[in-house]
Design brief:
Oligomer: single chain
Structural class: alpha+beta
Largest sheet: 8 strands, antiparallel, barrel
CATH topology: Lipocalin
Number of helices: 3
CATH class: Mainly Beta
Radius of gyration: 19 Å
Helix content: 10-25%
Order of helices and strands: HHEEEHEEEEEEE
Distance between the termini: 56 Å
């Protein structure tokens, strides 16, 4: 009986480990995301003319340009910091919990949810957080994309990062 319980426990642990580990590509992406990045610019796709839009439920997209994003793969915690920019942007540091999200038939996405800086608990209970599609990533640059609706049609914000 002890041998059976041991074998059953071992099998359950292996199944659990494989279910939580993600694909090889997701683990590689997580390792590549790890570190400090600077958001160089935010561009739009599918939007005509000039717009003034708030992104990530935080600030105007121009305020995010130059922001510093930190990702720690060991703790799955990170932060971004918006610097004060004249009268348009308020300086702010925001902590978040992040991971790489995979769904069959969909592109890999980086997902994060805002947390408080003291206990790392969700700030907005019940909110889902954000998922940004990973367009491209390597050791020096990363491009992410978020979908929005503009005039009833799909449009995108494109986030271009360089690694510090």
């Amino acid at each position: 009986m002890k041998k059976f319980n041991f074998m059953l426990s071992t099998i359950l642990l292996l199944v659990l480990f494989n279910a939580c580990s993600g694909s090889k590509e997701a683990r590689k992406d997580k390792q590549t995301v790890n570190g400090t990045w600077q958001l160089q610019n935010v561009t739009t796709e599918g939007i005509t003319g000039k717009i003034k839009a708030q992104i990530l439920e935080e600030a105007a997209y121009a305020c995010f340009e130059g922001s510093i994003w930190k990702f720690n793969q060991n703790t799955n915690l990170g932060s971004y910091e918006i610097t004060k920019n004249g009268g348009e942007c308020v300086g702010k540091k925001q902590d978040f919990r992040w991971s790489i999200y995979e769904e069959k038939g969909m592109p890999t996405r980086l997902q994060y949810k805002k947390v408080d800086s003291k206990y790392y608990k969700d700030l907005e209970e019940g909110k889902v957080g954000f998922r940004l599609t990973i367009v491209s990533i390597n050791k020096t640059s990363m491009q992410l994309k978020s979908e929005i609706s503009f005039e009833g049609k799909p449009a995108y914000f494109i986030y271009n990062f360089t690694k510090n």
